[in-house]
Records
---
Amino acid sequence: MKSISKLALVVSLSFLFSSQAIANEEISGDSYLNKAGLKFLSGLVNVATGWVELPKNINLTGQKDTPVSGLTAVTLGVLQGAWYTINRTGCGVVDLVTFMIPTNPLVDPVFVWNDFLRETEFKGYQIN
């Protein structure tokens, strides 16, 4: 009976120390789970918030260096915003479908509210 309790003690201590060693491993920013998770999350968020490109582009068109009247800025902003809304939502769908391929998201900035005063860029797949 004592040998079984000693064996149980040794086995439980070995599990205790082995799990501590695993917990101390660092997860790098380039790990598969981090990239796939970011891509899934950005795809989901971009599908849900792609419409925010519309007011963002109306604002950006009105703030450009070339002076444009109010109605022209709104018209151009609505047209560009509608196009960017379609693009961001479409890129979100593609990112959702292909999240298991650990590439960077197709949109820069990744989320529409990041760097709100900068025009959105749509990229192809870049493995970094």
Note: Confidence is low (pLDDT under 50) at residues 18-27.
---
Amino acid sequence: MSRTHEVPTTAPNQIARPPLGQILALEELDRDLFLGHSYNDSAFRIYGGQAVGQALVASGRTVSPDRRVHSLHSHFLHPGNPKAPVIYHVDRVRDGGSFTTRNVRATQDGLTIFQLTASYQRRESGLSHQSVETTATPPEELPDFEDSLSPDELRGARPWLDVLRRNIAIEFRFPEEYPRVANARGEARPPCQRAWVRTSEVLDEDPVVQAAGFGYVSDLFLLSSALPPHGITIDEPGLQLASLDHSVWLHSEFRADEWHLYEQEGLWMGGGRGLARGHLFDRAGTLVATTMQEGLLRLRR
């Protein structure tokens, strides 16, 4: 099901989200040099998915349109300042017969805050299978997150939920209880969570922008899937949480502004770090993307 509105609307009791279309519309400064903005003065640091999405757009602007991004690997090096622009420097590493490789370096005030390598491939057909399957209640049949909570749970969730909605342009609905709610009650859960996700506004038809839209979405909730077994949330006093590296494999083309089911699993924690994996499925249960992320999860009582 596609959305037909062109401009996101905000009801009086809702919080306006960042303008993702503008965020992904980079300004070209020179050959292989692009400028990005956050359009958000309320955040303390740049959302990791924004850096992924903008860097992917920068790389895609230097690639032949007959090639599609199939993987990206990135590292978060320093917190970005959302009040300042980011310059994206693209290095044309390789243009082969089937594959194209680009490196992107994001800087602020001369400091490299983020770097990404993206690989593009000429369209090909071949053998196919997937080893994972899933089903879930369709998003239209699920309540908004606020409506799924008790009054006490909503009061506890309101501070972080308002910050999330104010700073990240993603809509989400949970087919089961979000483990963070159980953790807030002091209850442990398995290291798994699922959410239907889509960008909060319709994006440009450009395949690069749609891929970048999922790059933006892919960082949401992922690392926190390692916390449920420990019965704590990211608001736990003394917990330091930050993404260190992030990888995405795009198995087919899809629209990031349409609902997809994002299943996440916290595979491991130790040494102050955690490792999480994500699978993204379309409505038919087809696996369209896979993600992995390692991050800092350091608890100091």
Note: The chain has one domain: 20-122+144-299.
---
Amino acid sequence: MSLLSQSQSMRSRRGMTIAELSRMIGMAAQNLSTILQGKKDSRASTFESLAAAMDAEWVMVPKEKLAEVRQVLEGKGSGPDRTARSTLDYLLSQ
């Protein structure tokens, strides 16, 4: 998934308009739209600002870890069961 498509997807999930994002990062909406459509290159700092405005992080993932990261992002990855009671919770309830 490209950085552009990830940006568009995140914007959609956050329910943010291009106008709203452009105000937050201080860029004209038309310029931002052109960048997100892939019609114009942009600086890394623009994508860092976009990520911050959407309460996200822009990161690089080593290729050998990419499949695992994608699974986690899709909600299919393994990890700790956050709904399970901790040992401390269990002991305190005794």
Note: The chain is about 60% helix and 0% strand.
---
Amino acid sequence: MAKAIKQIELVQPSAQEEQAQDIAGLLTQLSQNREAITSAIDIMGQLQKSGILDIIQGLLHSKEKVASIAIDQVNQPNMHNIIRNGFNTVDFLGSLDPQQMNIMMSAVTKGLDESAEVMKRNEKTGVLGLMKALRDPDINLAINSMLGFLKGMGREMGKEHSHYKTGE
């Protein structure tokens, strides 16, 4: 019969053997991820050339001062309004229909172009010219569109105004 093993000897690798194993593992990882590492090195080189790494390094060395300045700035009363307005702006932009917004922005661009042309000509328009302009389908559409805009805006402002009156 075989003898029972009563003592197990743990073989502890030496520091040099551990280091050699670590290096072998790193070399394996380097060879398996060669493209990613090459890209990362290229990115780091570009960041260094552009001076961005120096800026980041400076920020990291002065992180306490930078954090203190940032906190002081965020605690300014106007900054609270800026942050709230930023959230309101993002909420507003999210509520807009992109197709309608595209149409309106194109119309505004074209309107600015027309306005620049009119300003170059420096012509005067009298009452008769205004009456004639109202018959122009493009002007009539723009005026009706603006009236619709003002109506919707006024309706919403009326809701807010009634909230202030009733204390809601």
Note: The mean pLDDT is 89.
